[in-house]
Design a protein that fits this description.
Blueprint: E1 13-16, E2 19-27, E3 36-41, E4 52-53, E5 56-57, E6 66-69, E7 78-79, H1 80-88, E8 94-96, E9 100-102, E10 105-107, E11 111-113, E12 122-124, E13 130-132, H2 138-142, E14 148-150, H3 159-173
Parallel strand pairs: 7-13, 12-14
Antiparallel strand pairs: 1-2, 2-3, 3-6, 4-5, 8-11, 9-10
Domain CAP-Gly: 27-70
InterPro entries: CAP-Gly_dom_sf (IPR036859), CAP-Gly_domain (IPR000938)
GO cellular component, one term: cell cortex
């Protein structure tokens, strides 16, 4: 398997150009060289075929919802903690804001208090490329007080991955 592809890529959710898809095939598509991913798009208007190319059935999907893409064009996503750090950029109590100018008037905002991830009770990761819980215990260390979490429209494609995040959250309460 290609070193940049995760093991068991078939069945995994991916993001490509802002669109979501599920990997249905990994391998060659002659006469081209190299590895291709056969994907089934969430938006069936995005695809071009049903997994058949050159008369060969590489995978099965709804008519017109499949495409072949190169692995380097897709994102397999990030674990929960990496996504939190990417979205929230900081784990400090305050951040320096920039001066804002309106016409000839300048407003100096100074410092703005931002709750740290440790004290946050809500995390919004909707439309982020979250693909699972990640390293055991990392959620507990990073976001110990979260009670409300939004991972809608993420790359999580299995209930087991949702349960892994939830189980981690429950363990923190004990």
């Amino acid at each position: 398997m290609d070193p940049e592809l995760p093991e068991e890529a078939v069945g995994r959710r991916v993001s490509c150009g802002g669109e979501r898809a599920t990997v249905r095939y990994v391998g060659p598509v002659p006469p081209t060289e190299g590895v291709w991913l056969g994907v089934e798009w969430d938006d069936p208007e995005r695809g071009r075929h049903d997994g058949v190319h050159g008369g060969v059935q590489y995978f099965t999907c709804s008519p017109g919802s499949g495409s072949f893409v190169r692995p380097q064009k897709v994102s397999f996503g990030l674990d929960f903690v990496s996504a939190v750090q990417q979205v929230y950029h900081t784990d400090t109590e305050e951040i320096l804001t920039e001066d804002i100018c309106f016409s000839s008037k300048r407003l100096e905002w100074g410092r703005l208090k931002v709750p740290s991830l440790h004290s946050s009770t809500s995390i919004l990761l909707n439309r982020c490329d979250v693909n699972g819980a990640g390293e055991g215990g990392a959620i507990r260390r990073t976001t110990p007080n979260v009670q409300w979490l939004d991972v809608s429209r993420s790359l999580i494609g299995r209930w087991e991955d949702v349960a892994a995040i939830r189980v981690t959250r429950q363990k923190q309460a004990q």
